[in-house]
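Table 4 source record.
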Amino acid sequence: MNRRFLVFLVALLLSGKFASAQKNEVEKTSDPDSSGVVNSALLPSVAPLLLFDEEKEKEEKKEKKKKARKNIWFGIKTQRGYTRRELRGQTYLEYFNYTDIAQTPDPYIRDVYWYDTRDKSIKTTGYTKGTGYLLHGPYERIVNETVVESGMFYYGTKHKTWMLFDENNVLQDKNHYSEGWPEESRISYYDQSSRSIEEIIPIQYSLEEGNYFYFYDNQQVAVTGEYQYGEKVGLWTEYWDTDNTKAIRKREIQYKEEPYTKNFRPYIRAEWDKEGNLIYRREL
């Protein structure tokens, strides 16, 4: 009798441990802060190799006239598309080219433009392979038969010269991009000869605008964040230097969600050790 009771007691304890382990695992997977380890597919691990390639731009100019009639842009065969909508008595048209090549968008670029075939609209967020087509080639936005915006896309990113016009087709603004980066952007290097990037500060209209990156000297991402109208917004994340073996969050700092928000003080939202274990989290 005692032996049976002992066996039952051991089985009960083991089942309790198993249930506890299952519970802990469920809590761990449902808690985004339980581990600082980040899926590397969601985060660029090293700096881009080259920005603002002048030689590449010269070659593209040579090919432009030759390829335009065949809808070949930057060496890629494209298809033409358009969207149309009526709003408050005005007609809005967008003419664009797109590619069916399943290119992975540059993870450093905030705004990636793609054509969603489900609702026949152009979007800047939410693109994944198979959900739509990246814009690639010339683009025009027309309001009541007047061109109000024109430019060029390169795999979903703004490229070369973009121009904005008023309702009388008078030029209001002109910007220059290189594969999604405003050419005003400030880039510093650890080593100028090898183009080993230290920091990328996106600049537009003389203000910080877009995704910010800071890198360790081994080119692993150290800090990521976003600027809007010259102000830090949203969640800024620092990462441990793991010599490019994995991405582990070190600290997250919460800034205001919208620029020019008054009476908001940034705060540390969470911290992790070098193994990715949570060591602090602010309870709201």
